[in-house]
Design goal:
The chain is mostly helical and about 150 residues long. The protein has one domain. Helix content is about 45%, strand content about 0%. It is elongated, with a radius of gyration of 19 Å.
Length: about 150
């Protein structure tokens, strides 16, 4: 066999084998326990559009979240997002960094750039971004408010 053929078969075989790893295909959306008291319905709508896939229990799991190794990255991002800031467990989660939400958005940290190409609905216009930042501050406060 030629070297290219051997490499191609090896890559395909590896791709098939990694599909057997169970992590990343659980796709559990626990029940919504309690949401915060949003300042306006518009803030909630913008948040649900741009942030809820990782920061709520209402994740929409796209088809590629079933294919390793992408499924591992998606699962990790959702687990991490829910751990730090989950609007579906408001007042019931030990740490819920809502007070950091506006700053993350303001600094361009959220939504992550890697998320936007496959989730164009999460792209916010400058006006929407300003509205969401203002709404997040009104809803959760800011980190410096302590």
């Amino acid at each position: 066999m030629s070297k290219i053929k051997t490499i191609t078969i090896s890559v395909i075989l590896l791709g098939v084998i990694i599909q057997l790893v169970p992590y990343g295909r659980d796709h559990v959306n626990p029940p919504v326990v309690q949401e915060p008291q949003w300042d306006t319905p518009k803030t909630r709508d913008l948040f649900m559009r741009a942030c809820a896939d990782c920061h709520s229990n209402e994740t929409k799991w796209p088809w590629y979240s079933n294919v390793a190794p992408v499924s591992w990255l998606v699962q990790h991002d959702v687990d991490e997002g829910r751990e730090h800031f989950n609007i579906s467990n408001w007042l019931h989660q030990k740490k819920n960094k809502g007070d950091e939400a506006a700053e993350e958005l303001r600094e361009g940290e959220m939504p992550p750039l890697v998320y936007l190409p496959v989730h164009p609905e999460a792209r916010l216009s400058e006006t929407e971004k300003k509205e969401l930042i203002k709404g997040l501050v009104n809803t959760f406060g800011e980190e410096d408010d302590e």
